[in-house]
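Closing statement on the adenosine-5'-triphosphate sub-project.
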Amino acid sequence: MTAATSTAIRVRGLRKAYAGVPAVDGLDLDVAHGEVFALLGPNGAGKTTTVEILEGYRGRDAGEVAVLGADPARSGPAWRARIGIVLQSSAGLDEISVQELVQHFAGYFPDPRDPDEVIAAVGLEAKRATRARQLSGGQRRRLDVALGILGNPELLFLDEPTTGFDPEARRDFWALISSLAGGGTTIILTTHYLDEAEHLADRVGVIAAGRIVALDTPDRLGGRDQDQAIVRWTEDGRPRTERTATPTALIARLAARLGGEVPGLAVTRPTLEDVYLRLIGQPAETLEVVS
Ligand SMILES: Nc1ncnc2c1ncn2[C@@H]1O[C@H](COP(=O)(O)OP(=O)(O)OP(=O)(O)O)[C@@H](O)[C@H]1O
């Protein structure tokens, strides 16, 4: 395979400013075919601008962009048919049923998936005859995903897909995304939910002020795997906390000192959220260290 075909997305030196104010400020990115890549970052960091440039919906000021081997700014319907997009919110055609809507949109694609299979894949079989406007928020999102995958895309963009979902709906949705990824679809996900990124993404990119400031697997991001463990226990009726690179040795000392079972013992590593907040310059929840 050549470099051009082994990479689903290749971005170098991407820049975009609005009225002279940079929103994307020299961004580089590579996403491999079949990868689930999550783009994280605070409000206004430049995620939507970047993703819309990749989707071909927004122009750029500078930089090289190749998506499925083509420049989105110069690509036509054949390229677009290889891409699925699930936006933050969709509107329109609310008065027709799920079945009619999915069937209607299938007509726009050269090689659509079977509408009935797509409705089943997103778990909307029981809502087939329901009008779109009568769906719950989570069901509406499933319909959005159905429309996003209907064209059998090689590359799927998901923009904050589970905002407003209840926990069970999120788990179901994650299973759907994992099954798409398992089938080889490349997925670009923007999300504000760190657990979602951790659950779904092969790699995570953190964007701040228009640049990627960290990029790694969720368990290694920002040196997370090298971080010290946090040991919590109760002693003399008081909660105690200590950060340590050698938690096993600490627990052995505690067990010896306390004569066996250590009350309230818990050992944790910094969460992806702790690391993310540190990367974007926000202090994580203050940890009181008493040793
Ligand atoms: N059409 C526009 N015109 C002018 N400024 C814009 C426009 N779109 C975005 N911006 C600005 O560019 C910056 C980046 O915005 P962008 O929407 O890309 O951020 P984001 O990371 O997607 O944020 P969020 O997490 O809130 O969706 C922001 O400061 C925003 O105000």
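Residues 285-291 have pLDDT under 50 and may be disordered. With this model delivered, the sub-project is considered complete and its resources will be redirected to Aim 3.
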